[in-house]
Fold each of these.
Amino acid sequence: MKVCKLSSILIEKSRICNKKGMICLERVNHACYDETNMEWRTERDSGKAWRYIMKVVLERYHGLGNDYVVFDPNRNELELREENVRMICDRNEGLGADGILEGPILKEEGMYVKVWNPDGSESETSGNGVRIFAKYLKDADYVQKKHFTLYTENGPVEVTFLNEEGSRLRVSMGKLSFWSDDIPVTGERREVINEDMVFGRTLYPVTCVSIGNPHCVIPMREVSKPLVCKIGDYAEIARYFPNRINTQIMKVIDKENIAIEIYERGAGYTLASGTGACAAAGVAYKLGMTNNKVIVHMPGGDLQVEVEDDWNVYMTGDVFYVAKITLSNEFVEKLRAQGITVGTGEFGAHMMVELTNDGPVTILLESKKAF
């Protein structure tokens, strides 16, 4: 590769792309490289300017109405941050989503997924998110096997495809823990079972559990969206929970069926939750209200949950692919205005630009500051 050392060059290409073809510079202009400040500068006398276009492509899926977009860092030149995650997930001014699944992040031990909440915070794991991301890996030809291991912040999960399309999956979600220091819940170390807690001046019998992320489950005779929103709004930030909490209110229908409503930490009311379903099923079994295998009914649909004797929990359910979405240039410009960086700098590392100055020239913008 030839690194341009010219002090001034004439850009004659009307469209210049990086090696992934995702970031483009448009319009003819003069440019020079300032060796002292290590930056490219353009001449503004003609009123022309370079325009930077980042092509950002997302894949939308949903699991029982719990909708996520997948952001593949290997196919996009955008660094996700709290600010732009919130903007993308905004249902009024953005794309709208219950969260973003970033990955696969390729490490020596395997493929990782980072789960972003719509408020820009990160979640340790997500049941629906894991199933959705597993299907994306199959759709994008990252995996071909029927069974594979996927890593989350909470650790490895085992994924099994139950049909050829990869739309129905069985996932090992890890081990349930009712211990206060695992969840966490304030106070002395104990199993948090049927404890009285006050949310919004009302006393509730609460059982708390961790499945990599924290949950409080409240058995009730009837469940509804307004009620879980009322309780969850207080519970999420209650003094009992230093890391905040996900809330489920649960109605036991019979020994093999329960119904829940969900208020997620960082997301609010949600039609379905994989970890929430597993948490509720585990609590119902712990309290002796159900068998170890139940169907969890949620507004978005049903999940099958099985709790083993050692409290490992398995979840089976469907996911659906919705669309491939290319964000508009106008929206990307708004993302850029949030101080987003691309790659390791404003243009990122390893950008190769084809220029013409008595022949083609390739420039490596490795550490140069964009103008």
Amino acid sequence: MLTGRAVARPRAVSVIEATGESRPPGRIAGDRDLLSRALDALLDNAVRHGAPPVRLDIRREAEDRAGIGDAIAFDVSDGGAGLPARWEALAGRSPFQAGDDASRATGTGMSLLLASAIAVAHGGALRYERRAERTVFALVLPRR
């Protein structure tokens, strides 16, 4: 697993302090600009709506539970409280949908919808979960 800690600067996010395995867990095929946009959206969402520290972990999944098969997961996590309870059931949908009440919340869920649509267009999925007091959005993409 490659690990980094993301830090926010005005309108920018950087990954620093990379640790872990010295080589990536594999390759993915896809549109570099769209995949970058999906990761940027997830990192920006974590910085805006989560709590420090924000992390990016890249790992291989031998069998993703969404049926993707051999995959690479880009886990963007933060120390925040996670999604509002009314959104949690919707977060498992693919593509992610914030629901009709999204406009009354702090955010609209558009960055999550964007990341989800990009993942699905690449044969992957966007997954949400709480792990050890952390909010995790995983961009899961098939290995090529």
